[in-house]
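Reagents: none. Just compute today. DNA polymerase phi.
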Amino acid sequence: MTENNEIKALKIDKQILDKFWTLSESSSAEIIKATDQLVVLLKIKQKRNTENELSQELEYSVKRLVKGLASSRETARQGFSVALCQILRKFDVVTVEEFLNLISKHLKLPKKESKAEKGSSFLGESLAYLTLIQSGRLLQGDGQFIKKVIRGLLWVSEKRVYLRQICYNGIRLVVQQLSSEDFEQYAWPEIEGELKKGWEGCSADVFSLLITCRKQHSELVNKDFLKEHWKTKKLFKDDHFTKIWNILMEGTSCDPVIHHVNKVVVQELVNNKCSLGKFWQAGQGVVFGKSQVKLLNLGFHMLLELLPLVKTADQMKQLLSRETVKMWVKNVDGKLRDLNPLLTVTKTLGTEIVNIMKSCNNSDMQIAIMKSIVQTQGFPGNQTTKTLDHLVTQMSAEAAKDYGNYLMQTLIQQIRSVDPRPIGMMTSLHMLIHLRTLVSLSSTAADHQWQLELLEFLMLHSYWKVVKESKAIKHCNHKCDEMEDKIRKQFQDSLHKSLTQLLIYKTENSKTLSVHAYKDTIYLLATYVQTLLDDKTNTVALVKPMRHQARADWDTVFKHLKEIHSKEDTPVNHAFELLFLFNAIQIFTDGSSDNSGLEDLIVCYKKASETKRKSVGKTPKKEPAWIEVLTELLLSMMSQGSTFARMVANNVCACMAKHITPEAMSLITEVLKVQNPGEDNSLLDIEDDEEDMEDMESDGEEEDQDKEVEEKEESDADEDIDSSDSEEEKDEVDEEFRTAIKSALGPAAVEEGEDDDDEEEDEDMSDSEMFKLDAALAMVFKNSKRNKDKEKKETQRQLGSFKLRVLDLVETLVRTPLSGDLVLDLLFPLLELMIHGEKEKENRELSNKACGVFKHLYKRAKVNSSAIADTERSLESLKSVIEMSKNVIDRSLLLSISDAYFLI
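Predicted 3D structure written out:
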């Protein structure tokens, strides 16, 4: 262009100039928007010119965009390519010849360019050719332009290997657009030489181009051509799999960029009805055998292409072979960084396997996937574990049962085998986790017989060993008398978690029916346990012999279970059956426990079952009503670390809600009361009740000791008060603290029995030694205070956790109709917890939970407002609510207090 034209370019509309900034720095969405706006602006400017004359704005834009293709800014190349392609499509006045001249002029290599600048120029030239091809304008010009573009792309591909793939992609696009006549006249002479070289030294780019020519122009690239130059009439068949893999490996030269030939090859394998399994077997040893990153990357990406196309279980087994799965596990759970391409592709592969499992209706294929992964030696890491867990949840009912049977058989073989083990130790543990998952699987939720079979298997191997084979007792077909403690422990853990999950899980149309089905299943499990205990043929034996008291407790529990199970399924009977089932499980869970709550439970059951019961109001004061004793048992269960215990307690509470009395409710609200600082609390001693009872039995023996202490105190009454106080403090010091003091004092410490009036040692100590002694003592007292603070915080944390669990009970209660008095009993403890949590951040979780329970209470109480509390009590409650509101600032709390006011 002339110098005058360059000067005129400075007067380009600012709106147009701004679009170039947007094109070079924006996201894809902004690039598309800026391109559309640029085209509109250029159309307006072009209207001032004749049809064959470019406006200066259009001429400037095309030139700047062509130059920008060689820019070192990646976003500029993308944005400029899109804009240039659209301009070529919309403005026929920009001819192909002029465009090619611009490429030659502005993307030509100067002699003094650096290596980086040359690379940018080559990339810009290839992008310019691709832009012309994709615009569709190349075919509108002279046929010689087609030759020129193909030659240009081949030339660039020879200069820069990393640009070879996009250059050949451009040629493939030209081949796809050309008619047979134009292809033979203009394209074929340029590429014929590359396509005649045959298998030997064939690159991925040439092979991809050959496949395209074979599909688009088969009259020229026909069977005779293949027979002459490739020694075959068919490229894709079993004999050529190894050769094809060699070509695919050549394509890894652009790693980590994945060559497009992968997808082309897979599609052709499908079109030619080749065995995908055999194809993978021909290459897995090559891509996974050398542990080269680029080959591993190729292998995993090919798996991503092949797996969704597999139709049979046999092919799935071939693709997910032991070698393949081991390499996948090694990389997905290895020490790869987040941005590592291998980690990305292996994670994607795991997701793809899950998606295949989800969409697959073939149970054989689902089983093939699960077995292929589980059979791999070694314990999977976090990512594989997540994938396996997701896979199990996607299994159909048929596949789940087959897989469950496979797990049970494999575990039995593992237990029986000495050497070699069929699977590793950690794989065995993971299999048990899968068995636990299968118990509450959604696809088999309604099959309670299957759930029972799994629970029986877990129960048997948790606490028994099979001494000899027997078909008379289920799951005793094989002798299993020895098992490692680690596996036994996992059996027990899986059993207990299965029982908990099944109680939580909704297996029927409603939660009530689900719990009823659960109760029936666990009763049958208890019956199976009774069969094992009554075995007279010495087929099974307990791992740890059952204590006489524990066996007596079991007989008592099972007797009551049979009695309740035969009765009408009322809410009360339902609740007690759940409690007896819980006690039955507890006998095995904690063999050393006295199961002391069992006697109280039996008494409660008998009183609740009496046909002519005394009213609660006539119950003697010294003897609490059965519902109060039962409430204490439920609170005790809520204090346990067992989720199973807490779930049972919640379900029992729901059944017993109609029987809750104000006295029973007071036991619950007492736990929820907010304590003042320094106030003692014994709520956390619930689990130690058994020890407290033992202490009470020994009170008589301690009376004599108490008398001796009193006599000693009376004999020392004449001593100085300060001396007496110091003696009391001395008695309270624990041995650990005393030891710490002695250690800090060092040689200055006075041993018991030594004379502490020796002043010579004190006189011999220097000031520096005294200072060191002071510092050591200060540290001891500081650590002591820190430990006490830590213990106090831990106590508060446990108390808060216990209150959260009790709130679960309360939430169960408020979902049922309650009398006005019971509503008032709950109202103020909940409000106090909400206010207390607002003041202290560490109680915020407890406050939020209380707030949620209060909302349920408010909604339910409004609906069931027929049962009104005593008027006088209601008035007092209103006054209390008003007083409570005076100390609250938070808006949400004020709204809750307002709701409480209107509720009363």
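The CA atoms of residues 878 and 901 lie 6 Å apart.
Action item: order primers for follow-up constructs.
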